[in-house]
Specification:
The protein has a single domain, classed as Nuclear Transport Factor 2, Chain: A. The chain is built from 4 helices and 6 strands; from the N terminus they run ααββαββββα. The chain has helices spanning 3-15, 19-23, 42-59, 119-129; strands spanning 26-33, 38-40, 62-73, 76-87, 90-102, 108-115. A hairpin with a 4-residue loop joins β1 and β2. It starts with a helix and ends in a 6-residue tail after the last helix. The relative contact order is 0.19.
């Protein structure tokens, strides 16, 4: 499978909370640098995505995921994830990039979270405006 197709398939699976399909794109030894922690192994990586999604669904009135493959070069791809958030009449779109590195078999061996300048701050402003309480 080509890098672009695999990146698109992985992103699409995550957009739909389809972790069984997402798992097919990950090496069993995949590593994920979230920016705040380092995760190792397919199960830990998928658990992180699942936990973030479940927490958001539990604490926000609405969330919709989308993504776009924005860069491909050899065995590297970048996906921009867009999370459309709604809570207490407020809306916000949070965006971030994730750089994927693939092995020779076309499986993802490394994921690196790449924050887009200002996005995290605007997300926290949305939480304040919308009175989001995380449980």
């Amino acid at each position: 499978m080509k890098t672009r197709q695999a990146a698109y398939g992985f992103a699409r699976a995550l957009n739909h909370d389809d972790y069984e399909t997402a798992a097919q794109f990950l090496s069993s030894r995949c590593e994920y640098d979230t920016g705040s922690e380092w995760l190792a192994g397919r199960d830990e990586v998928l658990r992180s995505y699942w936990l973030n999604s479940e927490t958001a669904k539990r604490n926000l009135e609405g969330i919709q995921y989308s993504s776009e493959v924005t860069y491909v070069n050899g065995r590297t791809a970048v996906i921009q994830f867009m999370d459309d958030l709604t809570h207490n009449g407020e809306t916000h779109q949070y965006r971030c990039n994730q750089k994927l590195t693939f092995n020779n078999e076309g499986r993802i061996v490394r994921i690196e979270q790449k924050e887009i300048s200002g996005q995290r701050e605007r997300l926290y402003d949305f939480y304040d405006r919308a009175c989001v309480v995380w449980e």
